[in-house]
């Protein structure tokens, strides 16, 4: 059974992404990719297009196209970087911030219901998922500590 774990994890994430996209399009009229972009901008704080591209693991031209769409939709402000150069600073508009909140609430509710329906307690599943994420993204100063593994 564990031999299939890598495939099963990949398939689960892909299906969750597709499900999130269907839910957000049906309920809020927006794609998961756009919401994920807005979410990452919020998480980064003062974000540049370059930092966003690195975080999303996509090209800078792809981020430039996406940020233009989000700006035109009134969800994002794109300003020249005060440090100069061809960099752009990104920040959410109030409408973008509200969309991230609404999307997060909607997806959290739907996926919590999904996990609970499977017979797995959602709180336990969330703890295990966070632990896996910690192991994949250890602190920059070294591997996760024993305290982080609890």
Task: Please give a structural write-up.
The protein is mostly helical and 150 residues long. 65% of the residues lie in helices and 8% in strands. The chain contains six helices and three strands. It has helices at 5-28, 32-44, 49-56, 60-72, 94-117, 122-136, and strands at residues 47-48, 76-80, 88-92. The protein has a three-stranded antiparallel sheet. A hairpin with a 7-residue loop joins strand 2 and strand 3. Helix 1 crosses helix 5 (94-117), helix 2 (32-44) packs across helix 5 (94-117) and helix 3 (49-56) packs across helix 4. The radius of gyration is 18 Å and the shape is globular. Residues 146-150 have low confidence and may be disordered.
Topology readout:
Blueprint lengths: L4 H24 L3 H13 L2 E2 H8 L3 H13 L3 E5 L7 E5 L1 H24 L4 H15 L14
Antiparallel strand pairs: 1-3, 2-3
Task: Strand order, main sheet: write it out.
Answer: 1-3-2
What fraction of the residues are assigned to beta strands by DSSP?
Answer: 5-15%
* Integer average pLDDT: 88
In which range does the helix fraction lie? 55-70%
Cα distance spanning the termini: 26 Å
Number of distinct beta strands: 3
| SSE run | HHEHHEEHH
Name the structural class.
mainly alpha
Shape: globular
Task: List unreliable stretches of 5+ residues.
Answer: 146-150
Number of helices: 6
Q: Give the biggest beta sheet.
A: 3 strands, antiparallel
**Backbone CA Rg:** 18 Å
Summarize the structure.
With about 150 residues, the protein is mostly helical. It is built from 6 helices and 3 strands, in the order H-H-E-H-H-E-E-H-H. The chain has helices at about 5-30, 30-45, 50-55, 60-70, 95-115, 120-135; strands spanning about 45-50, 75-80, 90.
């Amino acid at each position: 059974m564990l031999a299939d774990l890598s495939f099963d994890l990949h398939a689960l994430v892909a299906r969750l992404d597709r499900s999130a996209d269907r839910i957000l399009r049906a309920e809020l009229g927006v794609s998961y990719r756009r919401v994920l972009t807005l979410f990452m901008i919020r998480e980064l704080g003062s974000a540049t297009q370059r930092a966003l591209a690195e975080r999303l693991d996509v090209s800078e031209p792809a981020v430039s196209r996406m940020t233009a769409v989000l700006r035109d939709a009134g969800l994002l402000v794109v300003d020249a970087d005060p440090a100069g150069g061809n960099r752009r600073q990104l920040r959410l508009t109030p409408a973008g911030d509200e969309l991230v909140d609404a999307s997060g609430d909607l997806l959290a509710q739907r996926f919590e219901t999904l996990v609970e329906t499977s017979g797995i307690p959602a709180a336990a599943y969330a703890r295990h998922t966070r632990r896996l994420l910690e192991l994949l993204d250890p602190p920059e100063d070294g591997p996760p500590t024993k305290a982080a593994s609890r």
